[in-house]
Amino acid sequence: MTAVNLGLPHVPSVSSPGSAPRPDNPALIDTFGRVATDLRVSLTDKCNLRCTYCMPAEGLDWMPGREILSDEEMLRLLRISVERLGVTDIRLTGGEPMLRPGLEGLIGEVAALRPRPRLSMTTNGIGLAKRAAGLAAAGLDRINVSLDTVDAEIFQRITRRDRLSHVLAGLAAAADAGLAPVKVNAVLLRGINESEAVPLLRFCLEHDYHLRFIEQMPLDAQHGWNRGEMVTAAEILDLLRAEFTLSPSPDARGGAPAERWLVDGGPGDVGVIASVTRPFCSACERTRLTADGAIRSCLFSNDETDLRALVRAGARDEEVADAWRATMWGKLAGHEINEAGFAQPIRPMSAIGG
Hints:
It contains 10 helices and 15 strands. It is α/β, with parallel strands linked by helices and 354 residues long. It has a single domain (2-8, 26-352), classed as Aldolase class I (TIM Barrel, Alpha-Beta Barrel), CATH 3.20.20.70. The longest helix is centred in the first third of the chain and has 13 residues, at 71-83. The chain is globular. Mean pLDDT is 88; it is low at 1-18.
């Protein structure tokens, strides 16, 4: 097992994880009693948008092709996660996952795993209109589309691309293809698209999309995140309450990241993912695999474990599974964004996977 330190400081307020002996349990357990069953898989670090809160206008230096897991390598790791580690949900992410060659074939292979995992994907929606039906036929169950505004001018300002019409067409095609519920992920940026909170919710309610607002997190490539510029969950709810009546959803939240609210009594709802101001780490059930084969126990992990090296060195399935288990056993109690000494991960979100 090869651990790569990413330069984050150890925060002394959390007792050192992994010090207790790990019990003989095949699942992805940690020392705080959590069990990871939800795998987020980055298929590529490439993206065809240039969102201001994610990367610079000129883009990034993408991973060389030889560093990216091949389809065979990735499918082997996903098979191990399902058959040996108890993963029940797999979400394909990026970068932009639709830039991965042969995506439909890969989805078909994942859907054929047994026990069959629930299979979803997070995308920016560019090109989705032409591919939604094929993705559903291949075995994709559900989709999340990132959309921060329904105003074309604001969309272009945020993404540096004039592609709003393509995203809206992709959403409609996803609904027609049965990739339900279709979810919309939105980030509000102070002074840029705060005014879009209400129009976004009206748009999603009209089309029966499930809207989730996400607090901006310190995962931009420029390392320019500023807590004072972040629109908080409380502010988002205040913006929505100016036009709608919100009441807590009666549905159990479980390990879901979104706190959900019924809108005007329902049945429509809206979610807020308050990763920074209302952390939900104690219920986290996620594990992450990067496009180059690294396992991360958290978006903000101090380190990561290189499974690609094990696979390419000829390790047996159980050796790979044990390395994965050890990584998750050492997961910290929380992401420590709100602790003194927190430092942003070196890898940006586009390289980690959402």
